[in-house]
Amino acid sequence: MTPRYAQRMAKVQPSAIGELLALGADPSIISFGGGYPDATLFPATQLDAVFHEVLRQPGGAAMQYAPSNGLPRLRDQIAGLMTADGVPCTADDVLILQGSQQGLDFAARMLIDPGDVIVTEDPTFLGALIAFQPSQPDYAVVPVDAEGMRTDILAATLAANPRARMIYTVPDFQNPTGVTLSLARRKELIALANRHDLIVLEDTPYRHIRFAGESLPTLKSLDTEGRVIHLGSFSKVLVPGLRIGWAVASPDLLARMGLLKVAADTQTSTLNMAAASLFLDRYDLAAHIVTLRQAYARKKEAMLDAIRQYLPQDITATDPEGGLFTWLTFDEGFDATAFMRDVALPKARVAYVPGESFFPLTPRPNHARLNYSAPSEAMIRTGIAALGHALHAHRSLR
Ligand SMILES: Cc1ncc(COP(=O)(O)O)c(C=O)c1O
Q1: For position 310, what pLDDT does the model report?
Q2: Using 50, 70 and 90 to split pLDDT, how confident is the model at 396?
Q3: pTM of this prediction?
Q4: Is there a contact between 327 and 177 (Cβ–Cβ < 8 Å)?
Q5: Domain boundaries, the chain
Q6: Are 255 and 92 in contact (CB under 8 A)?
Q7: How far away, in angstroms, is 213 Cα from ligand 1 center?
Q8: To test ligand 1's pocket by mutation, which of 180, 201, 235 has the most ligand atoms within 8 angstroms of CB?
């Protein structure tokens, strides 16, 4: 039979980029494609110990159902982390999610009717667009420069979009560009959200992976009207396989997200919540994050050095102060998707994410996102050299 799908499925479609990236999974290809942390840095021994221990808790507690908003002890620990980061809160203000990705889905489902407008950075995180799509939003986009979202342009965008309901932003080391929203623009963004009565969805998985510069206040810490939904995640600082993220928001918003949590999956895995909680009790997450910062800082330098050495000089790369990605800008007219399909994958044996999929409205083909956290420094050099060679050869043919 041919199922008659609901209208919300109209834009829930596999992307051509996804199919292209699947080719990058070939082990003989050096992939700068995924947003994966370095698996060699996973605290596997410690996780082994905490899983062993939680499985032996009295009454099989870690194997039982748990409160749908999350284990109280873990919510309390996350509230402690948030308080230390300038967002004073208690366990009651924290909702545990199945990764921060679930918070993107819930925020859209809770706030967006078909045709309502979500305002995003341009480019923005592809996974957020995937999460928002079933809620059938329209988009309004705001360009990004070295200081993040152009809030001067945001003002006009909001004025022109009376159906705007939510501003989605990744303020720290944005995915895909790596740029960070400046303090002045953080304040401006909050002031504009207040003026236009909008929700701000602040997505911060990379926030603590900072190599340089001073940490900037979260949007949530600047929020005086309870309109920021802050999303955090253990994916990049602990392991993504635990699938533990969280939301911190005003009581009403959080309670409604909690209702969607019950509807979606009842609760996040008790076992994983218990293991994460015991990990935080037994081990020093902050020290682990220092190790990650040092390793990723070295890898970022290795990638930027290789880019300077091997890529044609007019191709620019962002120099992020943290996070996992740099963003390449090629000359106008260059098609990074076609180049990946025809040259980078089959000839250079290198994968990246072509930039076009990160633009909600008007794809711009002359960009690529490169990840430096997953490959080794040696693979970074080899892969960028191969990419550079292929780009030079491609140019000499034009
Ligand atoms: C900006 C951004 N938000 C959310 C996520 C989802 O992360 P999680 O593993 O916490 O669901 C990612 C993952 O790469 C991301 O880059």
Answers
A1: 98
A2: confident
A3: 0.97
A4: yes
A5: 7-43+287-397, 44-282
A6: no
A7: 23
A8: 235
Report whether CATH 3.90.1150.10 matches the domain 7-43+287-397. Answer: yes
Can you point out the beta strands (E) in the chain? 30-31, 94-98, 117-122, 138-145, 148-149, 164-169, 199-203, 228-233, 244-248, 316-317, 325-329, 350-351, 353-354, 367-371
Q: Which has the higher per-residue pLDDT, 1 or 108?
A: 108
Instruction: Tell me how long the chain is.
Output: 398
Q: Which long-range contacts (CB under 8 A, 24 or more apart) does 51-57 make?
A: 51/271, 51/275, 53/278, 54/271, 54/274, 54/275, 54/278, 55/271, 57/274
When pLDDT is cut at 50, 70 and 90, the band that residue 14 belongs to is: confident
Amino acid at 279: F
CA distance 371 to 141: 24
69-102: pLDDT as tens digits: 999 999 999 999 999 999 999 999 999 999 999 9
In DSSP terms, 354 is beta-bridged to 368
Enumerate residues lining ligand 1, CB below 6 A: 35, 99-101, 125, 127, 170, 175, 203, 205, 233, 235, 240, 245
Question: What tokens were used for 375?
Answer: 């490959």
Architecture of domain 44-282 in this structure = 3-Layer(aba) Sandwich (3.40)
